[in-house]
Design goal:
Layout (H helix, E strand, L loop, with lengths): L7 E4 L32 H17 L4 E6 L9 H14 L5 E8 L6 H9 L2 E6 L4 H7 L9 H13 L4 E7 L7 H10 L4 E6 L30 H18 L5 E2 H10 L16 E4 L4 E3 L10 E4 L5 H5 L2 H12 L3 H4 L4 H4 L9 E2 L5 E3 L3 H23 L16
Parallel strand pairs: 1-2, 1-8, 2-3, 3-4, 4-5, 5-6, 6-7
Antiparallel strand pairs: 8-9, 9-10, 11-12
Helix pairs in contact: 1-2, 6-7, 7-13, 8-13
């Protein structure tokens, strides 16, 4: 077993249950893992065990703050009282002086003023899922009856902002918005959202997705889903957004991808697992207490155990999970190993390694073309920005006068 080190757990207290039916959602199918389940609700004894163990294990790892991350499905379907109970348990088990925070991902449709007050009073960080302007957002994000969700999401965002709840946007990049990078970025900025995460959609179209992780299906005959973003299109999206951000918004708007890349170009490690050299420190907890190696590997092959039967610490730092993390670096293709941008990419997320390299080697990242396009386009400015920050200037100085390389 490896030594204690920082980790992150994404909890799914309502499993895959959701009140909308996004066409590209990778998690709704997880209901098939629990064919006899009716409620999909983390029971109180599981919630209490999780709370106690997460705090104890975080302390053992020397983490100065314990973060409870709630996702789904749609967690607001559990109701406010459920999360009042969660906060109550956190206060019970957290020793004096330990910082405890909560992060909450939602489609925002069920939010109301009671939710707004609760989230503000308990300092929740709320991620709101929105894909862009109305027509773009409604292309895939529809409810169970096939109705658009944009107006309901805007109402939810207004509630968060009126109650001064800290929030950010999680925006997926797919076939319907990939050619509208600057439009999507400007729209989100116009909503008053300062922090943005862009998540590319790419999934295999073959199989039911439960016999084995589809991202590990390297059969070239199996294509991607119709809503998946093409590599070149995603690369162009990143370039277009970067240009707009670099010219106008450094220091006032924060795009996770660019922030992470700046750190890498400065020689630091990645704060985002997909660009880290190894992974394995971001796990997923299902509603019944089952712990999985990763949120994108919620398949039977990646079950580590159940926290009601096996201590969380024994699973998080197990040899098996350590090997899962090392596999990311150990399975790089030859093209990745010799790439000039390896430091900034590290082969990307293993879930996307279903393509082939230039030499025909299997297991190459589907988004390789996206990333290399972006690095060639933005690399000189990222390098200049890194130099200026290292010299004590603000990052925004990079958009003014290039720093001397001599």
């Amino acid at each position: 077993m490896r030594h204690a080190q920082p980790f992150h757990v994404m909890a799914k207290p309502i499993g895959p249950r959701c009140n909308i039916d996004c066409k590209y959602c990778y998690y709704l199918e997880k209901e098939k893992l629990y064919p006899d389940e009716k409620k999909f609700r983390m029971a109180d004894d599981v919630l209490e065990s999780y709370t106690r163990q997460l705090i104890e294990t975080s302390l053992e790892a020397g983490m100065g703050e314990v973060t409870f991350a709630w996702q789904g499905g749609e967690p607001t379907m559990l109701g406010i009282d459920y999360f009042r109970r969660a906060v109550e348990l956190q206060k019970r088990y957290a020793p004096p002086g330990l910082a405890v925070s909560n992060a909450f991902q939602t489609n925002a449709i069920l939010l109301n003023d009671e939710w707004g007050a609760f989230l503000h009073d308990n300092a929740f960080l709320v991620g709101i899922s929105i894909d862009g302007p109305e027509k773009i957002h409604n292309h895939y994000r529809i409810d169970r009856a096939g109705r658009p969700t944009f107006n309901a999401v805007m109402n939810g965002l207004e509630i968060l902002q009126r109650h001064k709840v800290e929030h950010n946007a999680l925006t997926t990049v797919h076939k319907a918005n990939a050619d509208k990078g600057e439009e999507v970025y400007d729209f989100l900025k116009g909503l008053g959202i300062e922090f943005i995460q862009f998540i590319p959609i790419a999934e295999r179209s073959a199989g039911d997705g439960l016999a084995g992780a589809p991202q590990l299906d390297t059969d070239p005959r199996h294509g991607v889903t119709p809503w998946s973003v093409a590599p070149r299109a995603y690369g162009r999206f990143l370039c277009d957004v970067f240009d707009a951000w670099f010219e106008r918004d450094i220091g006032t708007q924060f795009v996770q991808f660019f922030d992470v890349q700046l750190g890498l170009w400065m020689g630091y490690g990645s704060s985002l697992c997909i660009f880290a050299e190894t992974c394995g420190n971001g796990l997923a907890l299902e509603h019944d207490g089952t712990l999985y190696s990763c949120d994108h590997y919620v398949y039977p092959e990646y079950v580590l155990g159940n926290i009601t039967e096996t201590p969380m610490r024994a699973m998080i730092w197990s040899d098996r999970q350590q090997q899962f993390g090392r596999d990311k670096a150990d399975t790089l293709t030859a093209q990745c190993r010799t790439c000039e941008f390896r430091f900034a990419c590290n082969g990307g997320c293993p879930k996307h390694r279903f393509s082939t390299s230039r030499d025909g080697e299997l297991g190459h990242n589907y988004f390789c073309e996206s990333y290399t396009m972006f690095f060639h386009h933005a690399g000189p400015r990222l390098r200049d920005m890194a130099r200026k920050v290292a010299a004590g200037y603000p990052a925004s100085a990079a958009s003014e006068t290039p720093v001397s390389t001599r």
